[in-house]
Every structure is written in C-alpha cells, then in structure tokens.
Amino acid sequence: MMAGDNDRRRRRRRGEPLYRLVRYADDFVVLVSGTEAQAKALKTEVAVVLSPIGLRLAEEKTGVCHISEGFDFLGFRIQRKRKRGSSKVFVYSWPCKKALASIMAKIKAITRQATNQLLSDLLRQINAALRGWTVYLRHGCSKQTFA
Fold first, then answer.
1. Which residue of 80, 109, 133, 137 sits 20 to 30 Å from the alpha carbon of 101, by its own alpha carbon?
2. pTM for this structure?
C-alpha cells in the first residue's frame, strides 16, 4: 500500500526516512530520503525481512550511495545531474558501461563467426541484436550512447 501525504508528513515530523521500493523480478532498489545512517539501517532491516524466506542480499551487488554518485540498475546508470544550460538538477538514466560493453561484445561475436555468410544475413543478425538492445534502453537518455 502506498503511503499518503499525511503518512509522509508524519514520518518527516518524527525524523524518520521516506523510502520507495522499486523492483523487477528478483532485482530491487530501495530509494531512501533520509540520512546515510537511516539508509544503512534500512539495508539491515531488508536483510532481516528476506532471511525467513531463504533469500539474502548479494554483498557485491548491495550498497548504499547518494543519488548524486549514481548507481547501475538493470542496465541503466541512474544519477542526479545538473541539466545542461540550466541550474536545475534532474535524475537521469542512460545505458551503463557494462550494458554497452555487452552489446559491443555480442556484435563482435556475430561478425567474427560470420566470415562465410552473406552480407544480408550478417546485417539481419546485427540489426536484430541492436534493435532489441535499443528498444530495451530507449526509456533513458540514450541518444549519445546510441550515436
């Protein structure tokens, strides 16, 4: 159940953090509006909630960071930045370096194995790979990466 405006105001008055859980299948990120200590406390609380159902947080993938530092999630780099030509800051998402390296390796593998293929077949395979990648990542600020 989503917290209403009154719930958020009450939590703020008490000095409690506000948080939002964003999940996709077995991956999730908890966005916290509060201090670093409150975020770390929430991390341990999440670990306690997951343990009875046989799940645990992967230490190499689990961390606490500020939104200005940014983080990678599901192939996207999510970070707060200042808008070019303005003093306003927004949260942007764009393809992360790992996702870009992955598609480049896939294209390289397709072109290396296809030495005796027709050019039309090779281009069809490359286009299918690129189309799938760009459709998945089109929701972010991907223009520079795609160029």
1. 80
2. 0.78
